[in-house]
Structure formats: structure tokens, C-alpha cells
Amino acid sequence: PPEPLKDKVIAIGETGIDLYHSKTYINEQITLFKSHIDASIKYQLPLIIHQRNSENEIINILDQYSDNKLNLVFH
Q: What is the secondary structure of 5-53 as a DSSP string?
């Protein structure tokens, strides 16, 4: 039988917030970004973060998770 998916997944991402072209979908991006952070914490996997023109938004969200040990790759 195939290995369980958890044995094949090595990170969560690429995820984050991209405001380069527009802020139209910022709320949706924030919701999805938070769900990816939650999955990273739950499964103890690194989180690969992409950001464009959203440094402050991402830092503010990550501050909400300061009680958790996060393993991040930022670009």
C-alpha cells in the first residue's frame, strides 16, 4: 500500500500574502494564510512564506502565533 500522505509532505506552502497588484482579496488571503499556519503547527512542518508588498501584514499575523514554535522559510 502507498505510504500515508503525512510521510510525503515535507512543508506547508508556498503561502502568504501578495498585495503587489491589488488588495482586493486581502481578507481571503489572510484567512488562507492563517489556515496554512495552523496546519504547519498541527503537523510540525516548516511553513514556506511568500510575500510581496505585505511585510507588515505578515508580521502582524505571525505575531498572533508568538506562543507557537514556527519553522519558517521567508522569501
A: GGGT---EEEEEEE-SS-STTHHHHHHHHHHHHHHHHHHT--EEEEEES
